[in-house]
Amino acid sequence: PGVSLYSGTASSSLSLNLANSNKKKKNLLLEDEDSDDDDDDEVVVNVKPDRNVRTGGSPAHCVSYRDDGRLVAIGTDDGCIKVCDATSRATIRTFGGSGNLAVRAVSWCRGGKKIVSAGDDGVVRVWDLSAGIGGGVDSDKRAMVHLSGHGDAVRSCVVLSVKREEGDDDGDSGDNKKWKEVVVSGSYDHTIRVWDIQSKETEKCLSIMNHGVPVEALLVLPPSFFKNTASSSSKNKNIPTTPLIVSAGGTILKIWNPLTGKCLGELQTKHSKTITSCTSATISKEVEDGKTVQYKRIITGGLDGLIRVYSADQIFTSSSGEKILHFLHGVKVQHPITALGMSPDQTRFVVGTSTGIVLVRQRSLPPSTTTTTTTT
Q1: Which residues of 31-51 are buried (b: 16+ CB within 10 A; e: fewer)?
Q2: CB 122 within 8 A of CB 152
Q3: Which residues contact 67 (CB under 8 A, 6 or more apart)?
Q4: CB 191 within 8 A of CB 210
Q5: 0.70 surpassed by pTM
Q6: What is the pLDDT of residue 121?
Q7: What burial class does residue 301 get, using C-beta atoms within 10 Å of its C-beta: 0-12 exposed, 13-18 middle, 19+ buried?
Q8: pLDDT bucket at 256, cuts 50 / 70 / 90
Q9: Which residues are within 8 A (CB) of 354 and not within 5 positions of it... i.e. 6 or more apart?
Q10: Burial, 183: exposed, middle or buried (Cβ in 10 Å; 0-12, 13-18, 19+)?
Q11: What tens digit of pLDDT does each residue of 258-303 get?
Q12: Residue 337 contacts residue 301 (beta carbons within 8 Å)
């Protein structure tokens, strides 16, 4: 068991195979939703990873790169969080904190010095990277923060950085005076909880939101996601100034303001089975006068093998005030979908399946742009 790392450099096996696939004008292991032939449009290739990171015999359930790409955090089935060097593959820190229950989600905090983990025991934990033990297992008591309250397994957790208001520094110094770190966790108990991990109060839960069914995935929509869209305007006062959260579970998507706990919109999707993952995408196109307009998309994947694409361009222009996602189109793959991902440069879309097969779709970049993305 382990994690395979694939480089986005031009000479990597992944990039070479994608280039050959694009020349044949075929999608890598993807087929049209209405296709009658399951095999004609497939291109099956054996892509060799650039590096393999071992996890000591325990299956890996979740992986998260630090922003600089140098370190990767891995959550394993035996309840450990391993922090590994992405180049040398060496394990530099190991944290153990789920009572031997599986870790299902890991995220990095702002600055890359702390890690948030959550899993089957329902507890969210914050770990200090400098306090871990190289090659060994850190005691659960060494976690900086324990966040208890969920009544079932936590399947997703994300970290939000929110600018502090004047006078709201809680005595912090440095970067913490400007930014407040908030953790959002989604659980099988149907709830989404928002935690202030920097609060000195005993009760750190800011709000509890009810999704209505077990929560499988959370997606952060930062304020920048809604700028420069096809329908945005400097006069539009509805554009948010704080991050929003999309929760996915069952066949439902909900949009939340995590700081107020208010549900801004709900979408009953056309998935026939549970949504397991969601991601966002930005498509840039040139329009008149050389201006560039960005089209925003929310993408979901489920156990029914369907990928559904929704437009978020007009999410804040509804006259009723409700935040609506408009369905655009769908794609079907042969296997149940367990994970979705989009590269930072928005050129590579990755689909993980229950069979262990990873599907990759790449779109062309403008000639002046280079690809420097890494996927797992």
Answers
A1: beeeeeeeeeebeeeebebbb
A2: yes
A3: 108, 112
A4: yes
A5: yes
A6: 93
A7: buried
A8: very high
A9: 303, 335, 336, 337, 338
A10: buried
A11: 999 999 889 999 999 999 999 999 988 877 777 788 889 999 999 9
A12: yes
Mean pLDDT of all residues in the chain? Answer: 81
- The predicted-structure confidence for 182-208, as pLDDT tens digits, reads as follows 999 999 999 999 999 988 888 899 999
| DSSP class of 251 | T
pLDDT for the residue 50: 86
* CA–CA distance, 296 with 315 (Å, rounded to integer): 10
Closest CA to 228 of 296, 281, 163, 311: 296
DSSP character at residue 356: S
On whether the CB atoms of residues 217 and 211 are closer than 8 A, the answer is no
Q: Classify burial at 85, counting beta carbons within 10 Å of its beta carbon; exposed 0-12, middle 13-18, buried 19 or more.
A: middle
**What are the residue ranges of helices labelled H in 252-355?**
none
Q: What Rg value do the Cα atoms of the chain yield, rounded?
A: 21
Please write the tens of the pLDDT for every residue from 26-48: 444 433 344 334 444 455 567 88
Q: CB under 8 Å to 156, separation ≥6 — which residues?
A: 104, 105, 118, 185, 186, 215, 216, 217, 218
Pick from 164, 330, 186, 327: which is nearest to 246 by CA? 186
Report yes or no: 324 and 315 within 8 Å, Cβ to Cβ.
Answer: yes
DSSP state of 290: G
Reduce the secondary structure of 136-196 to three states and give it as a string.
Answer: CCECHHHCCEEECCCCCCEEEEEEEEEECCCCCCCCCCHHHHCEEEEEEEEECCCEEEEEE
- What is the rounded CA–CA span in Å between residue 53 and residue 311? 37
Q: How far is CA 331 from CA 44, 137, 190, 327, in A?
A: 18, 43, 28, 12
Provide DSSP, 19-37: HHHHHTT--TT-EETT-S-
Spatial contact of 210 and 252, defined as CB atoms under 8 Å apart: no
Above 80 in pLDDT, residue 325? yes
Structure tokens at 297: 């998309």
Task: Supply the pLDDT for residue 34.
Answer: 40
Adjacent-strand bridge partners of 336: none
> Which amino acid is it at 268?
Q
Tokens 């960005």, residue?
Answer: 294
Higher-confidence position of 324 and 29: 324
